[in-house]
Amino acid sequence: MPSTTVLFELPRVGVIITCHNYRAYVGDAIRSVLAQTYQKWDCVIVDDASTDGSAEHVRQLLETIGDPRLRLLVRPQNGGQIAAFRDGFAAGDQPFVAFLDADDVWLPNFLVAHLSAHLNLVHPASLSSSDVLVVDRDRVVLGGTYVMMRKPRSEMDPRGVAVPPTSRLGEIAADIGYSTEHAITYFGPRTYGWLWAPTSSMVFRRGALEPVLAFPFQSRMSTDYLTATCAHLAAGSLLLSECLGLYRLHGANASTNDAYAGGHVQQTPAHNASHIKLGAEVLDYVLADAERLDAINGKGFVSEVLAHHLRRFGKLFDDPRIAPFLSPRNRWRWWRKRAVRHLRRLFGQA
């Protein structure tokens, strides 16, 4: 009689809920993790020195729930989102890691859909991101998609590669046999720019995220931009078109109190002003990790990344570390733009 012994185990997922003064919302986030159809997870709630009683609220909630997969980690002083990410990441060793902002919520199939996508038989990736419903503080739905996410809309993005249902692992692993009519698209490391929905939509491979969180970034917030942009450079991203979470707009996060008008979610002026700093942080990471990135993706990859990055963040052109990595054509453009900037400054002083 043939053996029915399972020859492999499905991976555990490390869930990290980051909380700072979100007592009103964090319970919803925790309950949404408990409601996941994929149950092989461990969850740490990182309280970043909240002053609204969030930590005690979570502690009491966990005592009531009594699930050993849930634990609380309280930071002694506020370090910002990236410090909470690092502490939560260091607290586990699971091969996949998902971050959930304390003011957001996952729908029950979030983890199983992401694991099913990650364990496809065609395109392994550094991270995955799914679409979200945009809701207000009371979870009233304001929008059915996050429009800044790169997903099939009127036509397939020419850089994206569809991952067909027949290439997923579900046929031999029933626990992730997730069926969906929504497209899953793979974008390789040579697809640049923002591709994803926000933090709570993302699941990372630990091996891709580890060198990113180990890098000494100085920005305290917008950690999803840093982690997704840098991890993507190793093995690309999988984008799930299905809405698998709720992204909450309530005015106390990076979004404004303005009424949601559709289109791009409006961000606070302070958040928008931080973009050039974030661009500089990504530049530092790419330059520091250039040898490894070229070894993974082929010689000249870092040159392509920098050429795109400088088109996005023109103010970074003055950095002298860039020139050796540029192609002869882009190097000529770089010198020309530096010369023009220098002359303009002289003219302005005159």
UniProtKB/TrEMBL annotation:
Q: Where is the Glycosyltransferase 2-like domain?
A: 15-111
Instruction: Show the Gene3D superfamilies listed in the entry.
Output: Spore Coat Polysaccharide Biosynthesis Protein SpsA, Chain A
Q: Which CDD domains match?
A: Glyco_tranf_GTA_type (cd00761)
Q: Which N-terminal stretch is annotated as signal sequence?
A: none
Q: Which InterPro entries does the protein's record reference?
A: Glyco_trans_2-like, Glycosyltransf_2, Nucleotide-diphossugar_trans
Name of the featured protein: Glycosyltransferase
